[in-house]
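Re-run with default settings, no changes from the original entry. Doing this only to confirm the output is reproducible before filing.
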Amino acid sequence: MANLLEHLSLIDRENEYFVFTSPEKQESLALIADAPNFNIIVPGFPGKAVIRRAIWEQLILPVLMKRYGIDVLFSPGGIAPAIMTRFCKRVNLAQNMAPFSDELLSSYPFGMRKLRFLILQKLYPFFAARADANIFISKAGRDALHRLAKLDEEKSEVIYHGRDEIFQPVSRDIAENFVQEHYGISGGFVLYVSNVARYKKQLEVVKAYHIIRKRGAKINKLTLAGIMVEPSYYRQVLALADRLGIRDEIIYPGRVPQVHLPYLYSAASVFVFASICENCPNILIEAMACGAPIVSSNVEPMPEICRNAALYFDPREPTDIANKIHQVLTDETLRQVLIRNAQENVKQFSWKRTAQRTLEVFNGTYWQK
């Protein structure tokens, strides 16, 4: 949201904004703090506790909205107060598609994570149906929610995320030297940037990497960069690598600073993205912007985002993943076509455009009867 708010502050000096945020997120909004029409409010957020947060959203937030005279409430979490909101219009943003993926839900045992997803599966359609406008960050996300709620097509807008300007191609030599110096990885590696979690299918990617190596392909390390959000799944990935005898061929640098990512994308021989559940995957936008040759999951919205800038595979089939990686590694003409297509396709993703279209929704919602 920080990128969207920053660009709204640059293009809109007429509307007054009240941004309710938590203390830990206040620093990320520093760029809009000096905007004369933006007010950062830190009202004592309840943290990540689900029940306390629900109480705050449903009982405390309406009081604050009345106090500050809010005309349009923008809810980027997809949930808005169900009461005391007749005095203002509501714009919902649907970002989390996990509750609508049966495959993802079935992969988790019953527990707090799954319970939360099941609750959100009911709440998202409920609040979307009552909103005056709904913003979706992909057509796939829109269609998923439309299957569960009777939403007005005219009040549903698809507005993609933008891309940060730091994501630009880095010359091959500079990128490879940087990656070698900071991560000890030499050129010719396979890169997968994403949180380590079941639905990201790192297990299948490791199996695919093993298949490629057995074929004798000239390939360096498999680099799995990202936050380890599911430690038990990460241990499964390492155990599999041990059984396959390729543990030393896999590098896990953990969370990579954003400023390092352009070098990794630019130095990689191929970028892999195997997720089965996304909404508007920023990582693919970043990889395209840096000119990485991409092989991706064929589950929507990945084809919607990458279009002709990727080869697509079934993320459940390691052999299919291996075949697509091998194609890119061995066909230089194909690599260059994917890179050119990526550079052209990524032009559609702009935070300025995202902010302009979002502002149009805000203004249109305020004036609608």
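The chain has a mean pLDDT of 91. The radius of gyration is 22 Å.
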